[in-house]
């Protein structure tokens, strides 16, 4: 980190220095080392510092002349994450611009389109997300590569309150890939909202079986267990979620 910062001071127009610095920030964020932003108070401030560093470094790389599509894509992802974290309309608009530039550079990448759609959902624009997802599905068709876009289409309908269309989209996903865990998690959410707690537990349990290292279904199942008075089972799921790295702030359903 010190070496890169010194190199940037000597020659700020070397875009590789900036992109490598972004990688250091990203590695720290992903692994929770707490080294780069040492001195920040608490997890929230540390994460903000790291996300700022990632975003600023990629933007600096682009401004220094980085021609690579990967850098714009990484910048778009970091802008989307930071914009959502800070609820910043300005950074969100920059994320949208960077995603569009990335797509212009790699027009046949359904992965970038799906990532863009996720960002648009985060920014509260499900209709625009669906427009992007249609273009993603033009590339992937009905192959297994299409399941993420179809799942996101379901989320876009759910965000607009059209649960029937969401369920239809998610059933399409299961026809292509019956082991796609996020669908079962969302079926669990719907069942829970409808007061069908046994069914919700079944769906969350299926999600956990298919994706045992993902924490969301443990947390939601723990909440249902708690509501049903099954405190020991709730505590067990909560403990598992924490062991798997869940943020304590995500445990609000079971710590109220």
Please specify the SSE layout and strand pairing.
Elements: H1 2-10, H2 15-31, H3 42-63, H4 69-86, H5 89-105, H6 110-122, H7 126-140, H8 147-159, H9 163-176, H10 181-193, H11 197-210, H12 216-227, H13 231-243, H14 252-255
Helix pairs in contact: 1-2, 2-3, 3-4, 4-5, 4-6, 5-6, 6-7, 6-8, 7-8, 8-9, 10-11, 10-12, 11-12, 12-13
Number of strands: 0
Ends apart, CA distance between termini: 41 Å
Number of helices: 14
Strand content: under 5%
**Cα-based radius of gyration, to the nearest Å:** 20 Å
State the low-pLDDT regions, or none. Answer: none
Helix-strand string: HHHHHHHHHHHHHH
Shape by Cα distribution: globular
Give average pLDDT, whole number. 94
Task: Tell me the helix content.
Answer: over 70%
Class by alpha and beta content: mainly alpha
Largest sheet: none
């Amino acid at each position: 980190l010190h070496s890169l910062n010194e190199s940037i001071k000597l020659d700020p127009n070397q875009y590789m220095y900036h992109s490598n610095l972004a990688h250091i920030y990203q590695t720290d964020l992903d692994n929770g080392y707490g080294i780069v932003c040492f001195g920040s108070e608490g997890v929230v401030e540390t994460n903000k510092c790291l996300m700022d560093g990632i975003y600023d470094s990629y933007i600096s790389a682009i401004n220094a002349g980085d021609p690579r599509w990967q850098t714009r894509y990484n910048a778009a992802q970091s802008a989307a994450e930071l914009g959502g974290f800070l609820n910043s309309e300005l950074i969100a608009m920059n994320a949208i611009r960077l995603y569009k530039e990335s797509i212009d550079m790699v027009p046949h990448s359904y992965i970038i389109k799906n990532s863009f759609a996720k960002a648009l959902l985060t920014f509260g624009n499900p209709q625009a997300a669906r427009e992007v997802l249609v273009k993603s599905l033009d590339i992937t068709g009905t192959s297994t590569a299409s399941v993420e876009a179809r799942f996101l289409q379901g989320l876009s309908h759910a965000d607009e309150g059209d649960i029937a269309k969401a369920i239809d989209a998610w059933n399409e996903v299961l026809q292509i890939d019956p082991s796609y865990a996020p669908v079962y998690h969302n079926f669990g959410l719907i069942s829970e909202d409808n007061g069908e707690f046994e069914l919700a537990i079944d769906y969350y349990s299926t999600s956990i079986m298919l994706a045992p290292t993902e924490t969301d279904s443990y947390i939601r199942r723990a909440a249902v267990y708690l509501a049903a008075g099954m405190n020991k089972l709730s505590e067990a799921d909560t403990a598992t979620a924490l062991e798997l790295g869940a943020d304590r702030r995500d445990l609000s359903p079971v710590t109220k």
